[in-house]
Amino acid sequence: MINQEIAKIFHEIAQYLEMEDVVFKPQAYEKASLNLEILPDDVEEIYKKGGIAALEKISGIGKALAKKIEEYLKTGKIKTLKELKKKTPVNIEELTAVEGLGVKRIKILYKKLGIKNLNGLEKAAKKHKIASLSGFGEKTENNILDGIKFLKRSKGRFLLGEILPNVYKIINELKKVKEVEKISEAGSIRRRKETIGDVDILIASPKPKKVIEHFVSMSGVVRIWGKGSTKASVRFKKEFDADLRVVPEKSFGSALQYFTGSKEHNIVLRKIAINKGLKLSEYGLFRGAKRIAGKTEEEIYKKLGLQWIPPEMRENQSEIETAKAHQLPKLIKLNNIKGDLHCHSHWGARLRQGFGGQAGKGKQGIENLIKTALEMGYEYVGISDHTKFLAIEHGLNEKQLTQQRKFIDKLNSRFMFHDSCFRILQGCEANIMADGSIDIKDEALAKLDFVIAGVHSQLKMSKERMTERIIKAMKNPNVDIISHITGRVIQQRDESEMDFDKILKVAKETGTILEINAHPSRLDLKDINIRKAKKMGVKMIINTDAHQPEQMYFIEYGVSQARRGWAEKKDIVNCLPVEKLLKMLK
Ligand code: DGT
Ligand code: CA
Ligand code: CA
User: Fold this and answer.
1) Last residue of a domain, which of 265, 291, 324?
2) 344-381, pLDDT tens digit by residue?
3) Segments forming the whole domain that contains residue 303
4) Which residues surround ligand 3, an ion (CB under 5 A)?
5) Which of 133, 204, 490, 533 has a CA positioned 20 to 30 A from the CA of residue 575?
């Protein structure tokens, strides 16, 4: 809410004024901040209706503060705060996040030791400069160090793939609680963002207290940050935090809409409501005091004149305009996927260990990959081992590929014998060398059912060279698919630089398919690149790059990334049955 945004700024101004030993004024800002927090009406609306005079009527808001609110509504900021921060260059927000540190102590730390931020605080505490300050002592110093350690750990974001399986477990456990009527994940988890700050869960129940008791005493909860009558916040053993809200069923839809976000999406939605003379909040959609929607998200979007928008699209990236025009794409779904073409077996490693004819067996053997594909209801699976350049991955050479072909042919004939339509395709994930050539001879590539090519070495080169390198690979008539094109590893390695638009043009011309790699730390193509590819009419494939059969289940993350990129079934070639898929290849 805009009220909350202004309340936060007033609170910060109060803190900075306090640092300067100003009297009375901090209290005035603090009081105004609190009043804004609990104000039921939107200040933007109040201002629209009655101007600055109406703002002055809000309890705790005088002429000067009303002007500040007006400034924020008009410019999106309040200059005073910036000026105060310039005078006292202390990062109060960062420092107050340390447990046990308030403005009073921060003031002493700044005046006596010149501490401005977390870094300075940590250095001073480690040098035992804090314990000797009056009013601090040894114990406080240790608490500060603990607090810093804790903050550092919790600052990090998590990969969607690390968190989502845990969220499913939490939700399944809470579903068993009899007071729980409805439950859903919300926040970035529901939007399936590639990284997650904290987990948000929403429940509809007539007995919130009981639900909250269950939640905070769940297995895996190691710390309770806060617990109220309708919400709670905890830390789980795996070190992520989760916020729970419990609402009555009649506002489940509006609360789900609000807590799913994104914040930017919500801001635009709220404006649409205001323009229609309505008010949208987590409690419902209101005309005056009358609730006209709230139970489901669908009715809220509908009453706002919009199609229901899938959570993955709610990033204020033109989805609202598109929903208004009733032109939302019909997003791809997990069960549209008919097979996975990027699965690694340990064929090469087993050959090296001398297993010979037994190379297809074992935990990561081709047979096990097939078993998992069948479990997943797939119609085909593609075996695409690394090739000879990647010696550490026991990449296969031309001869070994031929040997593997024989094994795969034999398996296929066994399926045919049993009248099953399941097909095993043989491919490889060849390496794109620095000059854009492929590490396997063309005659050998031509014998495979499909060829994936990817960059696995020299990821750092100039934008021009990298672009040319990939373009040359795409022009190879045997290369059907380019894997994980930017080479990024989320939170570990940046994307390689390249001219993506130019690459898309050549992909379109040559009929090369771009992979959406579903591995949780790759998700490459990322959402905006998927949208660009779709716009250009470049075909994509969602592959897992599984190095173990279980990893074939990563496909879910690839599908959600594709949805975030607005992809439809027709954009993704592994939604096709095998014959049609094979026709899409070069
Ligand atoms: P995260 O946790 O950083 O991965 O991202 P979110 O989107 O889950 O953010 P979080 O957990 O802070 O808040 C959950 C949702 O609640 C957010 O997506 C939208 C809503 N929300 C939170 N704060 C605000 C706010 O100040 N204004 C508006 N309009 N919505 C908010
Ligand atoms: Ca969140
Ligand atoms: Ca949250």
Assistant:
1) 324
2) 998 888 887 777 767 788 788 999 999 999 999 999 99
3) 253-324
4) 198, 200, 243
5) 490
